[in-house]
Amino acid sequence: MSLTSFGPANLIKRSAETHPLTWRLRDDGEPVWLDEYQAKDGYAAARKAFADMAQDDIVQTVKDAGLKGRGGAGFPTGVKWGLMPKDESMNIRYLLCNADEMEPNTWKDRMLMEQLPHLLIEGMLISARALKTYRGYIFLRGEYTTAAVHLRRAVEEAKAAGLLGKNILGSGFDFELFVHTGAGRYICGEETALINSLEGRRANPRSKPPFPAAVGVWGKPTCVNNVETLCNVPAIIGNGVDWYKSLAREGSEDHGTKLMGFSGKVKNPGLWELPFGVTARELFEDYAGGMRDGFKLKCWQPGGAGTGFLLPEHLDAQMYAGGIAKVGTRMGTGLAMAVDDSVNMVSLLRNMEQFFARESCGFCTPCRDGLPWSVKLLMAIEHGEGQPGDIETLLGLVGFLGPGKTFCAHAPGAVEPLGSAIKYFRPEFEAGIAQAKPGVPPLARPIVIGA
């Protein structure tokens, strides 16, 4: 699988002006270590931030650039930074990097950490300077063992060069950075569950408010940002707001570039850095090469398993949050999955909902009981044993587990693909409904949760 940002037939080459995230990548896929990174202008933005910019100016620059979170939620990064307290007496505060990349079909952060570890460290260093945080943690998905090795080596290199630790760049500013590997739970992608796990607690989301900016790790002000989000910071500081805004395509309300990709039975599955506003069709046809011979595109997801399914007719949508919202779902992580015409949607959804049910923290009733219930119904339909009313029950669960109905966003993301699959492929679900047995009410069949 390709982890490059080359365009069709490798005709579009990476450059610092157009590919701020990936232009430093080596063609052989090996990591870019400190000497090479600095030879490619690495840490120049950090030196600028420390020497020429006040801390509040860094926050304002990121805010003016319109950088949004790249983990899936898309919250404005500068706004989140602005929530951190201004009180200088609160000198203990933390910066967390959310590197718990467990969204199915998503591997963008892995590429950045494995091949450009110093880009993430520089992004965190600048961010720490802006937020006045003295300690940072990279909360890393436990299965990313190669990324852990590369990040730890890069941290040691940065320490030896005086770019981490005490009195960084002679500024009097101290920042320690640690790599913390998680135990492997999808729910840790939710920032307060991540905080609980980092503290050694069960990975349950916390009630908000208070928000992490006020009460986070060990009760102290904390800012949590995604890997790709933090990797955007050096280019914004180094090149300015106007340049960053100019990168996106006309019509996009989001700024900059985004790591996007396509998986599934496409000819060239991979990952590319592209401007916001590129159409999904361009991503699918020009970069991913369309479907392999003998397969036809049935539907696709724009950004991970927690986003709704779209049809081939939706490929002309622009890849930015508002563009995907216009066709009925969310952009999510921006790494799309193509579903071919050989796939049965009931089986696919049963597989997805099993994953989401297993990864639920079990804290709130709709998620804890509703997701296993959906799995039971889907398994029955998959085996042709569904009963009249099962599809309506599934649609009811989509509503009961929707936004605002659960403690966190896990369940709403889990049922979004289910609702869209029934919307577009209802006949496949109806085909699994058996005739009701005489004398048995359609909804009387017992559902044993968790059995």
TrEMBL record:
Keyword presence, Transferase: no
One Pfam family cited in the UniProt record for this chain: Complex1_51K
Catalysed transformations (reactions): a quinone + NADH + 5 H(+)(in) = a quinol + NAD(+) + 4 H(+)(out)
GO MF annotation terms: 4 iron, 4 sulfur cluster binding; FMN binding; metal ion binding; NAD binding; NADH dehydrogenase (ubiquinone) activity; oxidoreductase activity; quinone binding
Cofactor(s) needed by this chain: [4Fe-4S] cluster; FMN
Protein's UniProt keywords contain Iron: yes
Alphabetized UniProt keyword annotations: 4Fe-4S, Flavoprotein, FMN, Iron, Iron-sulfur, Metal-binding, NAD, Oxidoreductase, Quinone, Translocase
EC primary class: translocase
Domain (NADH-ubiquinone oxidoreductase 51kDa subunit iron-sulphur binding): residue spans on this chain: 346-391
Known partners and oligomeric status: Composed of 13 different subunits. Subunits NuoCD, E, F, and G constitute the peripheral sector of the complex.
Entry function: NDH-1 shuttles electrons from NADH, via FMN and iron-sulfur (Fe-S) centers, to quinones in the respiratory chain.
Family label: Belongs to the complex I 51 kDa subunit family.
NCBIfam families, per database record: nuoF_fam, PRK11278.1, PRK13596.1
Protein name: NADH-quinone oxidoreductase subunit F
UniProt organism field: Pseudomonas fragi
